[in-house]
Structure formats: C-alpha cells, structure tokens
Amino acid sequence: MPYIKHRMRPLLAAFLVLSAAFSAEPDMKSIPAPRSAAEKQVITVLQDMARNGGTYLSVPNQDARWLRFLTEAASAKQVIEIGSSTGYSGLWFSLALLRTGGRLTTMELDPGRAAAARSHFSRAGVDHIVTLIQGNAHEELRKWKGPIDVVFIDAEKSGYVDYLNKVLPFVRPGGFILAHNIEMTPDYVKAVSANPDLETVYYMEGAGLGISRKIR
Ligand SMILES: C[S@@+](CC[C@H](N)C(=O)[O-])C[C@H]1O[C@@H](n2cnc3c(N)ncnc32)[C@H](O)[C@@H]1O
To answer: Is residue 10 situated within a structural domain?
Structure first.
C-alpha cells in the first residue's frame, strides 16, 4: 500500500497543477493597473465613483474592459458615446484614447448627470479629450459630420435602431459599433444581424454587449 501511494504522488501533483491551470480564469471584473500617471488619475476617479455611489446605470467592469480594449485595437481617433450618464464608461474610453491620441464625444439627455460626468472628466484630467453634449442624442447626431472609429450605444433601448441608422454612414470600414444591454433590444439585434456590411458577435458575461464590426 505505501508503495502504491508513493507511485501515485506525481500523478496527483500533475492532476492538481493541470486542474488549477484549466480553472484559472482571467479577472475581468477588476480595473487593470495603470500604465502611466495620466491613467492613474483616471483610475482613481473610477475607483472613487464605484466606492461612493457616483455611478448611475453604468457598465460593469467586464464590459468596460472591452470598450477600452476595442478602442485601443482600432487605434481610434474618434469615439461617439450615446448615453454618458455620470461618465463611468466615458472614463474607460479615455484610458484607451490617452494611448491612441483620440477624442470622445459623449451625449447625455439628463442635465444633472451631464454635470456630474463633466466634473468626473475634469477630476480625471481628461476634459481636454472629451466633449460632452447635453441634449437629445437623436437630434444631436443629425449634426454629426466626421468619420467615427467606435460608437457605443447605451441610452434608451427603444432608440437603438435609430442611433444605428444615424451613425452607420460615418463609421469607417473596420470600425466598431458597440451596443449595451443587448438582451433588451431585439429590434437592434435583428437590424445588425440582417446588415451585410456588419459582422456581429456578443459578449454575455457582463450585461450583454453587442460588438459589430463594419466590414465594408
Ligand atoms: C445606461 S445609462 C448610460 C451609462 C453610461 N454609458 C455608463 O456606462 O457609465 C443611459 C443614459 O442614457 C441617457 N439617455 C436616455 N435617452 C437619451 C437621449 N435621447 N439622448 C441622450 N441621452 C439619453 C439617460 O439619461 C442615461 O443617463
């Protein structure tokens, strides 16, 4: 018996190492470590917002990480956000835009939340790369002219298809249209799925993020 136990020991060790390796999942919920002093300033405000109830219907960090990741991957120069709330997702975009040298234009209907977002952008030291437009995004988007690399749709769910139709002509080929709470917007899902100019995948670990890439 002791002999068998001895022979089993390396097998048991290998099993433990392998099962640990396969169960190790990337931590998507926490904010990654800052890569510069400017990022540290942004991350301090994000942490402060999360701790002190400064968010309102904001994206969970799992989804926010995709916003940052895709914005950097696209080397985005112009991001449009529809539904700023108090600026939490806008600050995540800013982390990417500090690297790409790009800008964020974010739109918010509610004056109180727009003011809170402005103050968060200012404290985070990114107000020079963020333009906040307080108003109805359906109207404001009619005035848009330039190319767009990334769009994030995160306002009232009944408006998603109209937002998509308004921004699509400006999104450059290779650019992304991201849409939040995708399970609440069946019409939008139908519209992106049926569009041959778009390829769409879904990330459902957070609150449901539609990731559409304009392929032509
Ligand atoms: C889910 S929250 C946005 C959360 C934000 N993206 C974040 O993650 O921090 C939705 C926001 O969209 C705003 N909103 C709703 N309808 C809008 C419209 N027509 N134009 C602009 N903003 C709108 C709401 O006032 C609300 O603050």
So the answer is: no
Q: Domain for residue 126, yes or no?
A: yes
Q: CATH number of the domain that 43 lies in?
A: 3.40.50.150
Q: pTM for the complete prediction?
A: 0.90
Per-residue pLDDT tens for 136-189?
Answer: 999 999 999 999 999 999 999 999 999 999 999 999 999 999 999 999 999 999
CB neighbour list of residue 82: distance below 8 Å, 6 or more residues apart: 106, 107, 137, 141, 151, 152, 153, 154, 155, 159, 163
Closest ligand 1 atom to Cα of 55: 9
Per-residue confidence band for 19, with pLDDT thresholds at 50, 70 and 90: low
Q: Spell out which residues line ligand 1, taking CB within 6 angstroms.
A: 57-59, 83, 85, 88-89, 107-110, 113, 136-138, 154-156, 159
Q: Which residue range forms the structural domain that includes residue 157?
A: 37-214
Which residue from 46, 56, 142 has its CB within 8 A of the most atoms of ligand 1, so it is best to mutate? 56
Q: Helices 111-123 and 37-51 meet at what angle, rounded to 10?
A: 140
CA 90 to centroid of ligand 1, rounded, Å: 11
Reduced to 3 states (helix: H, G, I; strand: E, B; else coil), residue 117 is helix
Number of structural domains (the chain) is 1
